[in-house]
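ENTRY TYPE: paired fold submission
RECORD: A
CONTENT: sequence, then structure tokens
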Amino acid sequence: MWYRKGTFCSAAASHTYNETTNQLTVQCNDMMCRLDGTLDGKQPALSFTIPAGENIRQSIIGILAAFDFTNYNIPELPRNVQYDLEFGAGATAYDMISELMQFAPNYEFFFDVDGTFIVQRIPCYTNDPYVMNRTNF
């Protein structure tokens, strides 16, 4: 049985193969490496500002588009940018998105196993059934 563990990027151009154990070893990073500067995601030598009042969702989509990401699932977030956000040359897409997400503290962002960028409300599990109660321990 095979289980998907995620979508990864090759972090090194080399690999090793062990013929005895039939094991292939490659060094890979998760998709966030394409946003955090590890493999990509750095803003070129330009600085820019996201002005107060901008829509957070549209700002995140714009950042993703600048770095060639087209698969995303981002809901409309409850607030807009509260004050000007300034980013200098060399800022990463991850830095920019993290700053934007400060205006939506109950939300998280990540890549799912298919490589889709997700923004979602952090689960609070208040309506989930009990796993353990007085009768089952």
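RECORD: B
CONTENT: sequence, then structure tokens
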Amino acid sequence: MIRKLILLATLCVVTVMATNVRPVTVNSPPGGEQSLQQILDTIYGCTGCVSAANDQSTAAYWQLMGGPPKQTAPIIEAVNAAAGNAIGIYTDPAAPILIFTAASYTGSAATIKFNVGGTLSIFDTTGGASCAVDGVNCGTFTGIDQHDFGFVLETNNAGGHTYYTDDSLNPGPDQARALAYREAGSDRWTLAFEDGTDFDYNDKVMSIESITAVPEPASVILFGTLLVLCASGLRRRRVS
């Protein structure tokens, strides 16, 4: 009986705590490529103040800072890009909206504005010739909740893949396809995506401002439900 109680309690703890597991190993890139640490140093303007190995956040979803409706956009900037990859934003994983297309390049920049009524507008702030040339998906869109969104990488390699900031949406066994970092004391985040098999996480790196992490909605609901079920199961077993 005691052995069964211990097993049930262990399963409850493991299940309710399921989330993005960090840290993961960041490998060295092939010769000639910048490492993720070098990219982070450039973004944050200091050497090693945000560690690629040790400062990985478990965040999978974010929201805009401030009360609704948020009119001031987070400034989203692509600071490193692999050819053929695009970055989007999603609330529904099946319906992401691209921010940067496969044509984006190092320095491509966009501003996202959440409007009254629930729409989202994307503007090109790169200063280049046009949205299309800069690889910015300009326009007004629907379907993104300003209190609950993640980011997605769409690749063109090996037939094309879609990878999310929420590990549970990615195919295994290597589900960690996006690493998130935040500069201490600020709202400046960096997302580093892996599009292949070398796991150096320098394939598409994006800096983002004016957002804050929120618990994964599904995990929060699951957490509460499983706590009740686990507590009930343990109580019944004690009584028996």
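NOTES ON RECORD B: The two ends are 10 Å apart (CA to CA). The first strand starts at residue 61 and ends at 64.
STATUS: closed
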